[in-house]
């Protein structure tokens, strides 16, 4: 969890602040539409508003937050059309990467993926929703990395972050989208080097996540940023 990465006595680096905010978004501790006041964030992280502004601009480029002139920053709330486009892009990219990974995966990589899937299942069983969301996104990102195309892996990581936002907007309470055994089954297919089955399973897996969504508009909220980032104060 991010709380393990503490700021030093001179204040948080821009990277630490970026990771803290992006993880809070991905883990649903900051909800879509939530306001992110520069002055409150500067106080929480012990840095200048200029530094916070740079981090917010980076997050806006990655479409995790929205910057509106005169209104400031809010956590992004993807539209239904954007949600469909994200999952369409994920199917095109991740299914193709599974075909590649199935013929090149090593025993060590299989063990690594199994450990991640087990960590996700433990988090779910322990009702650690934030941890499970983070591990699930990391699992998909790691699959893309192991397939050997780092440019696509970076893109998949961004799509997974946006998917977490989409689940927060359109998903049901307590639902991660991924079935708890899906990732274990996918690793089994990759270990068996069954390329066609791995591709088909990933397509079915992503389709099931998308199909679980329902449009549910919610009002913007102003979270207590001191509570969200309590680990970074003092």
Description of the structure:
The radius of gyration is 18 Å and the shape is elongated. It is mainly α and 234 residues long. Strand 2 (65-68) and strand 3 form a beta hairpin. Helix 4 crosses helix 7 (150-170) and helix 6 packs antiparallel against helix 7. The protein is built from 10 helices and 3 strands; from the N terminus they run H-E-H-H-E-E-H-H-H-H-H-H-H. The protein has helices at residues 14-26, 38-45, 49-61, 80-102, 107-125, 129-146, 150-170, 182-191, 195-211, 225-228; strands at 35-36, 65-68, 72-75.
Features:
234 residues, mainly alpha, three-stranded antiparallel sheet, 10 helices, 3 strands, 62% helix, elongated, disordered N terminus
Chain-wise SSE layout:
Layout: H1 14-26, E1 35-36, H2 38-45, H3 49-61, E2 65-68, E3 72-75, H4 80-102, H5 107-125, H6 129-146, H7 150-170, H8 182-191, H9 195-211, H10 225-228
Antiparallel strand pairs: 1-3, 2-3
Helix pairs in contact: 1-3, 2-3, 4-6, 4-7, 4-9, 5-6, 5-8, 6-7, 8-9
> Major sheet: size, sense and barrel closure?
3 strands, antiparallel
Beta content: under 5%
The helical percent reads 55-70%
| Helix-strand topology string | HEHHEEHHHHHHH
Radius of gyration: 18 Å
**Spatial arrangement of strands, main beta sheet:** 1-3-2
Mean pLDDT: 86
Count of helix runs: 10
Q: Are there runs of 5+ residues with pLDDT below 50, and where?
A: 1-11
- Count of extended strands: 3
Structural class: mainly alpha
Query: Distance between the terminal alpha carbons, to the nearest Å?
Result: 18 Å
Morphology call: elongated
